[in-house]
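re: that complex we talked abt at group meeting.

here r the seqs, copy pasted straight from the sheet so there may be weird spacing, ignore it
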Amino acid sequence: MTLRRDHIAGAIFVAFGLLVFALSGDLPVGTLSFPGAGMMPKLVAGFLILFGLLLILRANESAPVATVAWGDLPHAARVVAITAAAIALYQTLGFLVTTALLLFGLTFGTERRHPLVAAAFSIGVVALTYLLFAVALKTPLERGILGFQ
Amino acid sequence: MGTVESLLLGFSVALQPDVLWYAFLGCLVGTIVGVLPGIGPLSGISILLPATFGLDTTKSVVMLAGIYYGSQYGGSTTSILMRIPGEASSVMTCIDGYAMAQKGRAGAALCIAAVGSWIAGTFGVIMLTLIAPPLATFALRFGPPEYAALLVLGLIFLAYMSATSLPRTLLMACFGLLLGTIGIDNMTGHFRYSFDIAELGDGIGIVPVAIGLFGLGEILSTPSATVVGKVIAPRLRELLPSRDEWRQSAMPIARGSVLGFLIGLTPGSAHIISSFLSYGVERRLSKHPEEFGKGAVAGVAGPESANNAASTGAFVPMLALGLPTGPITAVLIAALMIHGVPPGPTLVNEHPNVFWGFVASMYVGNLMLLALNLPLVGIFVNVLRIPYAYLYPLVIMFCIIGVYEVSHSIVDVWIMLIMGIIGYGLRKFGFDPAPLVLGLVIAPTFEMSLRQSLIMSNGNWAIFFQRPIAAALLGLCAALLALAALSLIRSRKDWRSKLAEVEAGENP
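got the structure back, here u go
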């Protein structure tokens, strides 16, 4: 049997539905005349499992999983890693430093642009964005514990 | 107060210089957002949402809506000049718009797209003016059972209209509904799936989910090396179409306007679906169907009019019923809620300045867009010359600022990143993330209405069939499900499966 795209997708949703049931143990379902906090999540998780199974049953209509193109995955992984680092640092370093590093990281680290061009681009964009948000739109940006905006 | 008097009140609000300024700003940003591939109106609206916190409700909703319908205008520019759809709704314009550009008629194609968009947008606003107030008055009769039935109908309709299969759409909607249950249960005070993270007590916000799925998810799926394109820059004097081109575009614009508005009323990616359907209708009605794909004027005029009329039509259920028909109207609803103005039946009567000011601003906004899009096309073309390698880092930066500034919560930014990764995965497996956002938005109202209905009836499900409006709405649900099941049993290709093929990139 060829493993198809919907076999994987359906199995993930079935597993997710079961996980919801497992995590909902302490949530009361209540009664029909007074439904509890657990009624809606369990009802929806049930439907999620049902539709997941339907997807698996009809998986033959979908493309084989081997045909899914993952060529963009390394680029996506680099973007995610740099963005995650920026989010982790955002409240510590503040807007100015973090976003300058984020932009430099993406243009130089991911896109392999010339470091000087990437640095000029990052500093220029951050300065303009600061002027737009903090000065023109009066929207305070994160200062960070170092005290930079 | 009659419609004319109300509209005059609206114009007295919309023509105030500061409201005009924010309408212009929204239209300008919307056009730029539409022109740039990879940035959708949803990202644009979400990123600028925090900047509207200091404004009053009317100005903020006028600006945000301007971004939405402005992006529909801007999307055509990229499609015609580069064969890259600036917006998903401009995919069909790529085919004949770019073919016209290659024949040296880029200016004419842009002009027809802009005029068609203006006519369709204005038609949509006139219909909104006429339909929304009586619909809101009717909706005042709705109680919890009617609202629960209406939301079920919304989900079923979305699944039925969706180009992807029924179980896939419903799976996405269920996933969204589940995400919507995270946080404190309003009726009993139980914490649900918050894992001791205080920020999750208030639930998951629409903005981080929408920006993550549509903004970041799109960027992750688009490596910069794949974004290349040659811009065909038209000269200003080439903008005027010939008499024959005007004649060929008249009826497609009229048909596209009506079709687009009607589809816009329904849940789902109406502005996208309407342009696909309009293209199909025009090709079928054409005396020269062989010209489609080779620069047919109707192939530009119809879809461009349809997507603009649809984006206006989507405001009818949003304003009159408080029902979002897609992720963009969901974020607009969130914007209204942030300002303490709940959209829905009470909006027209309790906040007439906001409602009619908003409606009137759309008449003005559509005129502004016509003035913006034609003479300034050269400037917008230059925006397209920004390399994608520099553009997407900018978008990521604005995504982070946009999400963080809504509630100054870093947890929301992490949620955005997770949603971006999920969005990337969903695209790989052929899922449309729009129903997920819709499910998330309607989850609290749906759960509350369902539970209130059961409490009202002492646990008797028959309450949904004993009340005429709720029964009629559920009857419609059953009919739609039966229709979907019928096409499944017959295994016959209907218009939805053909649409799915076109969206997947097969020949239209």
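couple things i noticed - The mean pLDDT of chain B is 82. The longest strand of chain B covers residues 183-184.
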